[in-house]
C-alpha cells in the first residue's frame, strides 16, 4: 500500500474534526446570511473553508478517487494552507471590527476565520506527506487568488456589490483597488514561498531522522 494511503487513527480523527468544523461553519454561516447564494460563495473566506472541507473529506475518506488523489497532493494541501492563512491574516489584522457581529454570527465568524485556519494549518504541518516543493509551486498557487480578485472586480461592476471593502471601487476608486490587488498577489506569493521553505526544511528534518 502506498504510504500516502496509510493514515493513522489519530490523523483520521483529527481530519474528521477539522472537516466537521469546516462543513459546519459553511452551512451555519449560509443559514445566518441574508443575501444571494452567488454573493455568499463570492467570499474568499467561504471558498477557502470549502476547500478545507472538500480536501479532508476526499483525501481521508475517498483517497483512491480522482478527486481524492488530487486533494491528497502536497502541493494542493499547501495551497489550501496558504489560502486559509491569508484569510486569517487579512481578517484579523484588517477586517475585524469593520462589521460588528454578535451572538451566533460571532461564533460562526470566529470558526471561519480563526478556528478552521488553525486546525488546517496544524493538520498540514503534522500530517501532510512532505516532499520537495519548488518556487514554481508558489506561482501556481497565486493563480487562483488572482482570478478570484479579477472575478470580484468584474462581478462588482455588474452587480454593484463587492465582497470586501478593499475591493470596492465605488468607495475607494480603481487606482487604490488595483494597488490593493497587486499587494495581495505579492503577499500570496511571498507567504507561499515561506511555506515552501518551511515544507522543505521539515522534509529534510524527516529525512535525516529516517537515516
Automatic annotation (TrEMBL):
<feature type="transmembrane region" description="Helical">
    <location>
        <begin position="37"/>
        <end position="62"/>
    </location>
</feature>
<keyword id="KW-1133">Transmembrane helix</keyword>
<keyword id="KW-0472">Membrane</keyword>
<feature type="transmembrane region" description="Helical">
    <location>
        <begin position="12"/>
        <end position="31"/>
    </location>
</feature>
<keyword id="KW-0812">Transmembrane</keyword>
<feature type="transmembrane region" description="Helical">
    <location>
        <begin position="106"/>
        <end position="126"/>
    </location>
</feature>
<dbReference type="InterPro" id="IPR049713">
    <property type="entry name" value="Pr6Pr-like"/>
</dbReference>
<feature type="transmembrane region" description="Helical">
    <location>
        <begin position="138"/>
        <end position="158"/>
    </location>
</feature>
<feature type="transmembrane region" description="Helical">
    <location>
        <begin position="74"/>
        <end position="94"/>
    </location>
</feature>
<feature type="transmembrane region" description="Helical">
    <location>
        <begin position="178"/>
        <end position="198"/>
    </location>
</feature>
<protein>
    <submittedName>
        <fullName>Pr6Pr family membrane protein</fullName>
    </submittedName>
</protein>
Amino acid at each position: 500500500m502506498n504510504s500516502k494511503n496509510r493514515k493513522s487513527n489519530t490523523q483520521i480523527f483529527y481530519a474528521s474534526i477539522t472537516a466537521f468544523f469546516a462543513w459546519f461553519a459553511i452551512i451555519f454561516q449560509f443559514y445566518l446570511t441574508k443575501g444571494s447564494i452567488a454573493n455568499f460563495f463570492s467570499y474568499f473566506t467561504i471558498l477557502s473553508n470549502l476547500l478545507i472541507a472538500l480536501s479532508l473529506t476526499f483525501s481521508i475518506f475517498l483517497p483512491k478517487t480522482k478527486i481524492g488523489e488530487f486533494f491528497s497532493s502536497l502541493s494542493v494541501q499547501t495551497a489550501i494552507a496558504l489560502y486559509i492563512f491569508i484569510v486569517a491574516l487579512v481578517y484579523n489584522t484588517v477586517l475585524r471590527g469593520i462589521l460588528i457581529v454578535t451572538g451566533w454570527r460571532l461564533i460562526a465568524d470566529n470558526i471561519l476565520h480563526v478556528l478552521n485556519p488553525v486546525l488546517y494549518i496544524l493538520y498540514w504541518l503534522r500530517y501532510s506527506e512532505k516532499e520537495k516543493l519548488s518556487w514554481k509551486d508558489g506561482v501556481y498557487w497565486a493563480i487562483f487568488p488572482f482570478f478570484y480578485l479579477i472575478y470580484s472586480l468584474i462581478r462588482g461592476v455588474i452587480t454593484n456589490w463587492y465582497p470586501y471593502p478593499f475591493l470596492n471601487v465605488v468607495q475607494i476608486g480603481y487606482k487604490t483597488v488595483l494597488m490593493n490587488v497587486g499587494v495581495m498577489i505579492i503577499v500570496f506569493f511571498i507567504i507561499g514561498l515561506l511555506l515552501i521553505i518551511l515544507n522543505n526544511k521539515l522534509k529534510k528534518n524527516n529525512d535525516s531522522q529516517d537515516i
